[in-house]
Here is the input.
Amino acid sequence: MRFEELDIPEAVLRGIREAGFTRCTPIQSAALPLALTGRDVAAQAQTGTGKTAVFLITLFSRMLAKPGPAPGPSPRALIIAPTRELVAQIDAEAKRLGQFTGFRIVPVFGGMDYQKQREALGESVDILIGTPGRLIDYLKQKVYSLRKTEFLVIDEADRMFDMGVISDLRFLLRRMSPYDQRQSMLFSATLSTRVMELCYEHMNLPEKIEVSPEQVTVGLVEQELYHIGKEEKPGLLLGILRREQHGRILIFVNMKSTAERLGALFKANNIAAGAITGDLPQWKRMKILSRFKDGSLQTLIATDVASRGLHIEDVTHVINYDLPQDVEDYVHRIGRTARAGAAGKAISFACEDYVYALEDIEEYIKQKIPVRPVEDSLIVTDYERPVGVSRGRGRPGPPHERARKRGPAGKGHEGDAQKRKRGKRPQGRRP
Here is the structure.
């Protein structure tokens, strides 16, 4: 389906063309015809499938078709998202798609200039985008009102539950215009029982839309797995970065301390990279993301604070330096690449600390991740170790010594090193 086939005003179509969109994605084909008629929708869609464009195109089209009241304290549309990064991402996409509509779009979220956001919200606003906490803060101060809001969007609803902010979300919904006097749209990676309860409580008989790809993971992502000891991971990572010299690379780790060690490792070896973690000040996080997006940083290290909601064009590689402990996080992580029809590669390291999650991940995605042998030539051993950081030692010895250290080679058993050479998986520990 092409966007021109839908009832979309020319001002919105111009923004769609400027953004480079031509044909609808599956979620857009399923949801837009309903949403453009004013129906409430509850849609299940994985990240990177074009769901943001669904609600933005709907908002712009219906707001243009139905002129609103005189400017006042109540925004015509409210978009609620769980994280600061996602709010900033939706704001950027809205200003790109809606650049010819003339609507005033204001984002509000923590970590940025409080007074400046307050002043921007005090003026007339057409579309307000924000995180629950900051939205409640300004609402309690009566900077704005939701009593006459005509459109509501809840993005990544399942994430709201995971983050424990569902009570804040309900606080906002209870202070909005009645559900039968507004159009509501909800999007979630899963339409679980608790998400659907939220829909039935605060929406007007929503149409349930589920678009499931043939596989849970993005079909264009080329996946590969390396079984590697944790002390060899830095050398293998540097070897892969040397091999994959061209592209934009996103590296995921499980802990802030690991992100800091990798940042120090890259600095010691003159590799330009940034790192974003949960406690990084917002202005620093936005600056690093901006440099990664504009290409001045080729490599970004992130904890799972960045695994959902980020839309970064042309990420060619995702590297799971640590296998995630939650199976859905694996899907969200590798979904950062192969977006909008582009190809991408996801490379995962399975060390003795995290290999126990592998079986559950493969069961969830309903496929085995192809195992690649760890060739000696792929691991860098002559790298510089960062000063003041626990040593990420190179290879601790020749292959026969490593085999003795990692497993009983002999008496009918193979060591892990030999298993990797043959593409087999060493037995992982389970908690």
